[in-house]
Amino acid sequence: MEKNTSKDPSHVFHFFLNREYISIAEAKGIYLYDDRGNRYIDASGGPILCNLGHGIEEMATVIADQAKKVSYVHRIDFTNPPLIEAAHKVCQASGDAMDKVFFVSGGTEAVEIGVKIARKYHLDNGAPFKTRVISRWQSYHGSTAGALAWTGATSRRSDFLPYLHDFTHIPPAYCYRCWFDKTPDTCHLECANALENEIMCLGPDNVSVFLAEPVSGMSLCGAVPAKGYFKRIREICDTYDVLLMFDEVMTGMGRTGKMFAYEHFDVVPDILALGKGLGGGYFPIGAVAVPDYIHQKIAENSGMFGAGHSWGGNPLGCAVVSKTIDYLYDHNLIDRSHQMGMYLDHKLQTLKSHPLVGDIRGIGLMRGIEFVEDKKTRKPLDSTYAFSARLSAECLKQGMFIEYSGGCNRGQSGDMIMFGPPFIITEAQIDAAVEILGHALEKDLLSDTSHFSTF
Ligand SMILES: Cc1ncc(COP(=O)(O)O)c(C=O)c1O
């Protein structure tokens, strides 16, 4: 039998099985270097993850030093100094809004654990029927069966639907394509009120938690909710004893110009899921943080939370978390994320007149662009063009990696890209990045009819 018939001679099972991948051999600052010496601006910091910048000696040292002391102990049997320190620093970073932290190995695990904490809270509060999770369409919460069931990005779900439990989703907070055909002048927060309708229909005694990204990640590329949205959501949750869980896997750790995105909305969640930038781009780690009243309920009743993963709370990852938080403060990087985000937005506005640029949105260093066929009607481009995927590929040819996404139009079509560079990016580097995007947009990508594998 013939072996390894793919374009890639390696034994790697890739995301795109028929694509030739560029091999990145080194990275420094905001730049990636391939094994042929070509340089690329990392304009999305991977999947909006590398917050600090690449190649920081201190980050490498902290991992090496910790590995020499103790690299692993099991959290069920022991605690360890880096775990205690990292939990303390996360709570401190929340201004003590959070009081206890459960570490995991990434964003999906954080979402899964957060929903399980909600379940356990209700069990220990004498409400065993409060099990339903409500989330939003056009959201992304991760790729395991649970997290994917709560995810609302239809293209990510479709192949695996038979494995997903039937949880419900409400419309997204997506002003550019409001599902209620409202404008900022006529908006009465219908998309927030939809939560109350859903809770009523499911029966308040059956609903455990509402899960949302405070600012939408890749599935809506930086959509920021209307003013008052999360205040109304908090009010509804409080009325029906439904916990509010924020998925800050992408938005946390300074990405939006504040340590946590919830600070923009003057609303504190009951459960906070973190990942991506929590490890600065140096270690796979996530976490769930909760206020004291959530932890206390479980502590004073069953006294045990029997969920988790083998690598949870490992000293290596926790040492990286503490160093990441220190690094953000010592280098004033959260304020920098705000400042450079404003500058990036200002530069992106120069592309607003391009016939395909429909919306430029976001906050901090999370800036998305949605492309449309008709700016007036907001008609999306036909998905057969695979426009944003081709645009991202063209940017790569010109020396810049940028993440793209689709499906924002109710899962049927839509084209977006998102900037999410490391916070150390300079104004000159932003100028260079936007210039590359401008050049890529000058290409007639819509006349390319060759097949392009995308998602
Ligand atoms: C908002 C959000 N939640 C959860 C996840 C899942 O995180 P991970 O891929 O680290 O499991 C992601 C990843 O993109 C995300 O953006």
Describe the fold and architecture.
This protein has 455 residues and is an alpha/beta fold. The protein has two domains: 24-55 and 332-447, Alpha-Beta Complex (Aspartate Aminotransferase, domain 1), CATH 3.90.1150.10; 58-330, Aspartate Aminotransferase, domain 2. It is 33% helix and 18% strand. The chain contains 13 helices and 16 strands. The chain has helices at 45-48, 57-69, 81-93, 107-124, 145-150, 154-157, 190-202, 229-239, 292-300, 315-330, 333-348, 387-397, 427-442, and strands spanning 24-28, 31-34, 39-42, 100-104, 132-136, 168-170, 207-212, 243-247, 271-274, 286-290, 357-363, 366-374, 379-380, 400-401, 403-409, 413-419. The protein has a seven-stranded mixed beta sheet with strand order 4-10-9-8-7-5-6, with helices on both faces. Strands 11, 12, 13, 15 and 16 form a five-stranded antiparallel beta sheet that branches. A hairpin with a 4-residue loop joins β2 and β3 (39-42). The longest helix is centred in the N-terminal third of the chain and has 18 residues, at 107-124. Bound molecules: pyridoxal-5'-phosphate. The site of pyridoxal-5'-phosphate has 15 residues, from α4.
